[in-house]
Amino acid sequence: MNTDDIWRLSATELSTRTRAGDVSAEAAVQASIDRMNAVNPGLNAVVEDLSTEALTRARELDKARTAGAAPGPLQGLPVTIKINVDQEGHATSNGVTALKDLIAPGDAPVVANLEKAGAVVIGRTNTPEFSFRADTDNPLFGRTHNPWGRHISPGGSSGGAGAAVMAGIGALAHGNDIGGSLRFPAAANGAVTVKPGLGRVPAWNPSQKAERGMLAQSMSVQGLITRSAADLHLAMPSLIAPDPRDPFHAPLPWRGAPLDGPIKVAFTRNTFGYDLHPEVNLALETARDALTDSGYVVEEVEPPNAFDAGRTGYRALMGEVYAMMKQDVDAAGSDTVRQIFEVYFQEFPPFAGTELLQMMAKRSHYAREWSLFMQDYPLVLTPFLPQPFFKPDRDTEGAEGVHEVLGCAVYSYAMNYLGLPAGCVPARLAPLASGPQPINVQIVARRWREDMAVDACIAIEQRVGRFSPHLWDLMA
């Protein structure tokens, strides 16, 4: 198999070959590095090149295998890590110039778990300042571009991760999500992800000087962005391995018990007064039909109010951000990000004082409503965004821009507030005037049942196919 063929493989396809010994770890990593060297200069998705140490590690894995060591489940798979997570010896800059020399003293659990499984980190990917935009640009490393074209934002905050994996740089891309930062880049780039539920993936940064706020702890999760839905079944079991540094991690198996009878899916296209674009509606209908043909029972029925839960949750998060983070943004952020935060506080007026505590407490009310609803409907198919993905820097264009980028994304951050898992998968390649553009839908699953969300993503992907080959033809 030549180098050009290797980087095109999904993580599942590549791991089959590396575990069998048909492709060496060194060859797998070298192929991805070659691809990175070819396309990253035009994308700026990977902002720290770790090729040298990656090849050294790959050779060590090959030597250990030759000596009789059993290959790990992710043997030799090239992966990328987002720059807001600790990787020993590297800066956890979070896109902030003032943090460019914050060298991690150890690995975060996600990095340790990936490497224990045999993965090889080839680079670190870009994020916006403080990882708090749905677009990816910062003064330290500059803008990341969407491989589909510069008319589409790459999403954020894991924009470097989404652009990298879809362009063929690495088989898996690490990212994280407090309000949509895995799903926005997946939707922007036509990739697949599952936002894990609360407690599923252990998280902690050894470099951090203080604990995060309670809502940041309960809404933020670590995950992966992939080219193929099946890759999540391959890799997530390694990512969720326990780590004692996260005392609230739930050590549950990846696969839950099968449900009796066909799985019921609640289907909604309610966008709460925002215009539903015809192409998004077609994507939803394609996903609905794919699930129906795969044996799911899909019913168009309204779940509990995601708008109320989402807006309440994000206003509460903004209250915590205003109290605990605004000082850092004002001190170390660029003029651009400071202005964006001011508009955030207008779009989502922060709760404060007693009202903030009341709204944090109300989280249990919303979660209970959804838990009861999902006794009958273990999955919910929703829009992710009501419109095709927005242009770069749309969130810098005042109240109207932030409203389009985040204001209408209630199905996204509602799931962070509820702590529910949510898959995001492309269901249509829309023939827009600007060029073909992926349209993703969201699959919400019962608590602890990320595996069910991924199964549904696989069913949709089987209908529409992977989007990466279309993208690579466009990039050629």
TrEMBL record:
Residue intervals of the Amidase domain: 28-452
Gene3D superfamilies cross-referenced by the UniProt entry: Amidase signature (AS) domain
Record-given protein name: Amidase family protein
Source species: Pseudophaeobacter arcticus
Pfam assignment, any one: Amidase
Sorted UniProt keywords: Hydrolase
Coiled-coil stretches: none
Superkingdom, taxonomy of origin: Bacteria
